[in-house]
Every structure is written in C-alpha cells, then in structure tokens.
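Quick one - first record:
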Amino acid sequence: MKVVLDITRMLRRSSQSTPTGIDRVELAYARHLLGSRAYKDRVAFVARVRASTWYFDADAVAGFTETLKRRWKHAEGRVTRRELGNIERFLDLAPGVLTDIEPETPPRATLPDVLPTLKRLFSPVNLLPRLLRPRNSQGAVYLNVSHEGLGSGNGMRAMMRGHGLKPIYLVHDLIPLTHPEYVRPGDAEKHETRMRTVLASAEMVICNSHHTLDQLSAFAARSDMAMPANVVSPLGVENEFGVQELAMPEVHPYFLTVGTIEPRKNHLVLLHAWRVLVEKLGPKAPKLIIVGRRGWENENVIDIIERCRNLGGHVLECNRLPDAHLRRLMKQARGVLFPSFAEGYGLPLFEAMALRVPVICSDLQAFRDIAGEAPCYLDPIDGLGWARVIEDYARPDSAARDSQLRLLAQTRVPRWKDHFSIIDGIIDAVAAPAGEVRAPSPSWQPAISFERSKELIAAGELADAGRALSLVAAQPHSSTRWSVAESSASSSYPGRIGA
C-alpha cells in the first residue's frame, strides 16, 4: 500500500527563509517517510500547484526536502554578532559568551538555493505521464498535515475519488473558530470550511492534543456531522532540546518569553507585570527577554517596549534567535513565560520543559494535556498574580521553583519518534482492506468504543435514502475513537510521572 504525503505547503513556503511551526511539521513528516525503511518503495508525494495536481516520486522529493531543511536551518542562524552583543550587554555578560557559541554566520549569498531542486522536481524526467499517475497512487493512504488545500472541498473530494485515496488529516487547532478575535477577518470562515472538509472525508483524524480533539468533536456536533475515527498524538520536540547545555556565568535574574508578538500571545500582561516589578524592586527587578517576530495588531505592545522609560533597562526585544543560543538562554533563565489566551499546542513550552527549565504559563487545557502538573498555571488576565510568581521565581531560594524543578526531572516530553510510532500504526490500520481490522503496532494500543454514527451528507451531494455508515474500525466516518491506552503507553507521553 502506497502512502502519499501532500507537500503543497512546503513548495509554497520554500522561498521563505524562516519556517513556521506547521512548516516544520510537514518537513518532519516528509523526512520520516523518506528515511524509514518501512516506507521504502511505498511513499510518494502530491502537491496542488496552479490548479493542477502534481505527483512526485520519493527520489525526486528527497533532494528538495534536504535542501529546504538546510536552508531553514542555515537561515535560522542569521542572527548578527551585534544582536547577540545586545543580549550580552543587557544581561551584563562578558563579550563572547553568546557570540562564540558557533562560528560567525556565513553571508546571505551562501543560503542553500531550493530553485535547482524545484526545477528537477518539476522536470519531465521526474514526472510520470499523467495517465499513469492515477494508477500509480490508486488506493493509497493520503496524508495532509498542514491544513493546506482543505479550503476547497470540491477539489479534495475530486482528488480522493479520482484516485481512491484514503485520507488522514492532522488537525493543529480550531483557534479561528473558538477565538475569531485573534485571527484576521475572514479566517474563521476559511477554517470552518477546512474542518468541514476534514469531517466529510477523513478515514482518520490525528489531533495534537486531547483539547484539539475535544474542540473538533464539539464542532462536529454543532455542524451535525459525524466524527471520524481519531487518535491523539502529541507533536515531537527536536532532540537538540535536551542535550547538556553549557551553563553561563551567574547573571542578574531574567526570564524568557517565546512567541510572535500578536494579541493572542498576550505580551501585554507581562509588560504590565514588569512595570509593577520595576516600581517595587527598582534595579533589583528581574529582566525579561522577548524572543519573537512582530506580528499583527501589536501597536500597544510595541509602544510600551519602545517608549516606556521604566522598562528600558529591564525588557529587551529579540526578533530572532538560533536554537543553539535560545537553548543556552533558556537553560540559565529563572523561567520561561507563556501567558497566551489560546493555543493549539505550544511547542516552545515543551522545548523549555525538555531542557528542565521552569515554566509559568496560562491555565489552558492544551498545555495541561501534555505538560501535566509540572508548570505553574496562572489566569492570563491576572497581571498582579503574574508579577507575584515572577518575583518569587526570581529569588535564589524560591521553594516553588525548586518544587517545579523536581517535577520536571521526572517528566518526559514527546519526541518525534514517539509521535511517529503512533502514526505508523495508524497508517497501517487505514491501509488495511475494507472490512479488515489489523492488529495495532506494539508501540501503541487503541482503546476502541463503538457508537451509532450519524448519516453524513457531504456538501453539495444527496445521500441515498436510508444510507447508513459502517461501524467497522478504520472505515470512513465511523465514530470509532482511537486513543493511547493509559496503561502500557503512559510512559510515552509527557505530563505523566515515570521513569
């Protein structure tokens, strides 16, 4: 059985020097499928470009994928020595503590160029005749892990039916539907169409957290649509987050917050908390480093950062920071702060936990699903509460911080190998012939429950009178719910205390 990964987003974003979180996920899937022996001679790729569907063989995609990975990794390091020097001076570090971590950044002209690999990808030599392509991928498992193209329900249905594909979708979040005030006008309507496409066509849905699954299930109920078979598989933290980091010299207490500067990330509560701390403690107040690019509708936050004189020596904005430097700064910080109003997952939080760095974050179910009880949870609008906890964690003898460190020492965060051990089993289950339920992989155990399914009528179609949906596991639109068993699989998930 072939597996076809949709790489439309990777192609569309290949000219960008900085990847988003979803870009990283699609790249991780492509590299896993290309590098795993289990998928040798079984994996192919698809993309929709200029209203046409293009199919690619693994050999043609491998060079593009590796070039894109090197380009994004290389561009990530394009922080200047001047920017690093600003952080050193802000923290009163000796010159070179940060700038000497890695060799000086090569010039921009040396960034790996993806254009040659794109030309080879679309070369007639690598593209089989269009008439052969449908046969080559007929009946394959189709993976879409980026929401890309799901806004066109008719287009997706045509591709699924034309080639007999069995779709598996990864749903990242439903924030545009649950919190439309934090997205651009029109995004809520677009995301609703995407989620309807998922519900109408999925053989299996992967959710990054139980919170995302609950939100999708609630949307399905409101829309009177059946909930497809589903599994929760947390996204992975890169292995680099967890290696032994060199400790910096003792410095003035400081905290980090990581994330795009936009309303949903709630930087405003931190700035007001820091104003309180500076007024109370003066020069002894801890410092804050804001790591993240400027997003949209952030004028009030930027005004405070740039114009508030009281915060001038205590708050530093850093638009970009390579992983190597971010890890070192995280490791030395008194804590990493995440005051978000809404999150679908929150990968930087789990990167901090992988480094065993205390976390103070909003009390969101998405965080609790993966992080468990280790972090310090606060109401995102409780500015004084944030100020009190930050002041406490800044003290060298903080009992609360020491308690969290003990919990973090026993908490295991998800890695990509954990994620893909579940996904590989899901692909095998969906690939099974109709009516056949395959035994799951030993690395994951499904807990199956059967319920009567609603009749599903896809948009623009009429259902036959009396048509009912099958309750067989791995059949489309069943309400079978696949989840990791609490017993043997519990050690594979963060937030659970174990060896």
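second record:
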Amino acid sequence: MRHKDGTIREEFVQVEKWLSEKSLAEIEQLNNAAKEHFIYEGITFTVYNDTEGTERTIPFDIVPRILEKKQWDIVSDGSKQRVKALNAFLHDIYHSQQILKDGVIPAEQVLLHEAYQPWMLNFDVKGGIYSHISGVDIIRDGTGEFYVLEDNLRTPSGVSYMLECRNISKKLMPDICHCYELLEINHYPQLLKQTLIESTDVDNPVIVILTPGHFNSAYYEHAFLAREMDVPLVGAHDLFVENGKVYLKSIAGRKQVDVIYRRLDDDFLDPLAFRSDSVLGVPGLMSAYRNHSVVIANAPGTGVADDKSIYPYVDDMIRYYLNEQPILKNVPTYQCRKPEELDYVLHHLEQLVVKEAQGSGGYGMLIGPQASPEQIEEFRQKLQYKPHLYIAQPTLALSVSPIMTEQGFADRHIDLRPFVLSSPKETRVVPGGLTRVAMQEGSLVVNSSQGGGVKDTWVVQRKETLN
C-alpha cells in the first residue's frame, strides 16, 4: 500500500482512509462474514491426505489488492503474449517440430517428456488453439517489476474464487467499492462460454463440463462454472461414444456433444487410450476427438508446455514464434538436468527454492532459507538421484499486502493468477485475477493446499472521493 518512503500509494488512499475509520473488531467481523458466505455458498476445496477432513473453506482477507489500469495492461498484454507463444509451441512440436530442429529447445526434453502425447502428432486443432483456458502465475519483486512464476495450461483452477471474492467485496464493503471505478470481471463465465463456442464450427454447439467428481479439489468450481454458463456438469457415466461421436445421456434422449471442457488430467480421459484402470474417463473419447467430431478444451498434450523444465524457454518461444521481446520477465531458473547448473544448485541449496518440474499445489518444494539442515540434505539426495525432475530458482523479495490477523494488520506475500481465454477469433483476459496470499508470517507459499488464502483483485481506472 505504501511507497518506499512510507507515503500511501495513490490507488490505496481511499482504502486506507476507509480502514482507518474502522475498528479492528469491525474488520474482523467483515472477515467472519466472508467466511460465513463461503460456507453458505459451499465454496470449498479439497485437501488430499488431510487427517482433519477433506473439505475446507479458503481463507479470505477483506483488504483488496489494487492495480492501476496501466499496471494491469502490462500484466494482461504480457499474459496474452505468453499464451500465444505457448500455443504456437504446442502446434509446432506436434507437427513440424521446427523449434527442436533449430536447436532452440533440446528435442529430448520435449519428445521424451511424460506429458508429450503421440496421440496429438499431426492432429490439427482449430485455429492452433491447444490451451483455451490458461492461468499465468505472476509475482512482483521489491522494485515493482512483474515476473512470471509459472504457466498453467492443463486444467488451471481458481477462477471461481476470483469471482466470489468480488461478490463478497460488493456485499460487505459497497461504500468503498463505489469510490473506485472497478473494472468488472463478472462476465468471465460468458466469455468462457463464447471461447468454447468459437472453438468449433458447429452452430449452437452442445457444451459440457467433464468433472472427475465431488472428491476433486476444484469440484466447487466445476459446478459453479456449469451453473453460470448454463451447461451440463457431467461425469464419465453421463457420456458415451458411438460411431466416432460423443453423446450425452439426457432425459430427452441422447444429444451429440460438440465441446468438452474437461477438468481431469490426460491420463484419465480415455481408458482405451491412456490409463486402462481409469473410471473417470470416456472409452473411445480420443478416437472421437481424432475424428474431429468433438473438441476437448484444453487439448490433450498441453502439459508438455507448462512443465517447469520447459518454462525457462518461454522467452525464446516468444522471440522465435512472435518475433517480439517478452513483456513479462521469467524468474532466473536453474535446470538441474544440466550438470553445471546442478552443481551450482547443490552448492547453494540454502539460498534457493527447489521445485518438482511436474509439481503443483505447493507440494514437493524446498525453500532453502527456511529449511532445516535435514530437509536440505534430503533434497540434496533427491537431486543427485533424479536431477531431471527438478528446477531451482532464487528466492525473490515477493511483494506484500496487508491482511487482518488476530494481532491487527500485518504484511504477507502475494501472487496473482490472471486467466487467459484463447479462441481462433480472439484472446480475452478479464481485468482482474486471483490474488493468492500466504497467510503464515514469512511464508512464500500461497497455495490453498498449503494454508494460503485469497483476496479480491481490483483493477481501477478512476477514483472518486469518499465522503
């Protein structure tokens, strides 16, 4: 909220004034009201291997994260540029593989990747769009520069929290919301539906959301989006394949499905193509997909592009495919598969963050400055045994935001996940995103599965005076 000299940033002046007029008890009451809203609406997420129960409400903090429009434009333009290059990369590696032939990216790193899908070789997706829904995780350092922490192209989640955070802000603090000209985000479900419609040539296509079920960590989001888009939420038992086409079982009889927004991983999509023991997928789905009778969003095989070991090459992709300079910076990254970089990492583990290349949810990480000698030694052995499974990055001075604690206001580290919608016709980003906050003092891990919370993200264009 403040400049380095302690003065309040212009975009936070009205929020600071509003907070100063509230007692800590009043702010705490608002946060409690937000928690009750989450419980009433059933806004939960699942924590796997949690002995205290599987479902939790995500912590919410009432103090918004504010970005001026000119700051947001950098985030939005940079995210669009990045996703455009990643889609071009996916088309290339499943067709001519020119970027590999030119030596920009080592071929073995792509072709031997476990997420690389031979099913997608020489298969043309409409408009070259493989990742229709993408999430780009962005941080700011102490100088105010934006950095991309990672890309999410498989089944990125969190957009329902983004929308519900805004609903809570308008419900609990309407006076301060009216002081700002907030750019709206509530049309996201309609933009998502339009993106899926544009992914097919069918008029009035039948769209479904395929969920692995209510035990999935993001099931609330699956149901939320299905309701907001007015499309069926289905499981594998609701679909079947016949004569190379996918059908939905309905009360009115079977309906041919044109677009499947899938929220389960590649391995479980089709037991005839991938894991034979999957009961979450639809037998014959990949055959129908290869027959161009149905669109799957996001496309199978996108995971090879958002792996953390591919991440260091995204800047090169932007230059290679778009002939542009990257708008957003990458965090410097050491690839432990490279002997000279592994040697550096092994000698500086106390200073680095080490991540699994295929990891997610904040699991499988080492934060060197906060780790015990035993934890560091454990990771040293992991790196020496299978170095190709890990990358390492320096610990950046992540920007912070105030949150309400039992002792009053305190600063906590935050990140931002804007959601990019890509179709052959247009790339769209609503002006806002999911701000995740590390609720624990000193923590750099913002994932909800690791105790992180969320804030509303305000993109503001013009401010008025609060009377």
